[in-house]
Amino acid sequence: MAEEIEKSMPAEQSLMDKISEKIHHHDSSSDSEYEKPDSPSAVKAKIYRLFGREKPVHKVLGGGKPADVFLWRDKKLSAAVLGVATAIWVLFELVEYHLLSLLCHVSILALGGLFLWSNAHTFIKKSPPQIPEIHVPEEPFLLIASSLRNELNQGFVILRSIALGRDLKKFLMIVVGLWIISVVGNWCNFLTLVYICFVLLHTVPMMYEKHEDKVDPFAEKAFKELHKHYLVFDEKVVSKIPIASLKANLG
């Protein structure tokens, strides 16, 4: 009996040794899997993108037809939209035409032409004009009003937070932004400013999408330099402003 036990012990030890070797081999293989270098897709995801965006430019612009127009996916439609905007700007800014006069003149021509056509179709042997009934739907206006209300409420919350002295960084950014807008407003009127923004929307996103691999590294370096300057400004100026005492006095 003792001899049988002694014979069975080496077999059990060899079995345990095999199991431990398999476990050790599995652990080492799992560790090697974790130590594998990142896949090309993971490395690509870590590339810096302008303003920290994670979506393509088309999605950032909202997608759909407006994004196609801004990115010149439909060249004829984009050129037509830009041409109409340019014609409007030339008409109101250079020719100094007035919006009310334009609307009245266009309405007179349209109504006069349709009126003459409706009464003279028997003489010219053509069918009368088919003028559809127009009904303005309620849902799009409610959606626009709701979205505008949400944006306004969010803007008021941010302005209130800044006015209460809770975020000095946002306060400085808004002051600088308003000052830049005031300077630009002295250079041109509102219509010209809107037209410039419209032209920029039709050119900058399209050019950026074509050259984003070159623009993003340059933008990364620029933002790093700006961040360094901001840290210096924060250390020398912002940190010395007694925010806590101001909040205590306001409270």
From TrEMBL:
Pfam family, one: Reticulon
Keywords, ordered alphabetically: Endoplasmic reticulum, Membrane, Transmembrane, Transmembrane helix
Annotated InterPro entries: Reticulon, Reticulon-like
PROSITE patterns assigned to the protein according to its UniProt record, in alphabetical order: RETICULON
Keyword Mitochondrion: no
A single GO BP: response to bacterium
Residues passing through the membrane, by range: 77-92, 98-117, 171-201
Keyword Endoplasmic reticulum: yes
Localization annotation: Endoplasmic reticulum membrane
Sequence ranges assigned to domain Reticulon in this UniProt record: 66-251
Domain of life: Eukaryota
Membrane topology reported for the UniProt record: Multi-pass membrane protein
GO cellular component, one term: endoplasmic reticulum membrane
Signal sequence, renumbered to the chain: none
PANTHER family in the record: RETICULON, RETICULON-LIKE PROTEIN B5
Protein's recorded name: Reticulon-like protein
Record organism: Brassica napus
Originating gene: BnaC04g00900D
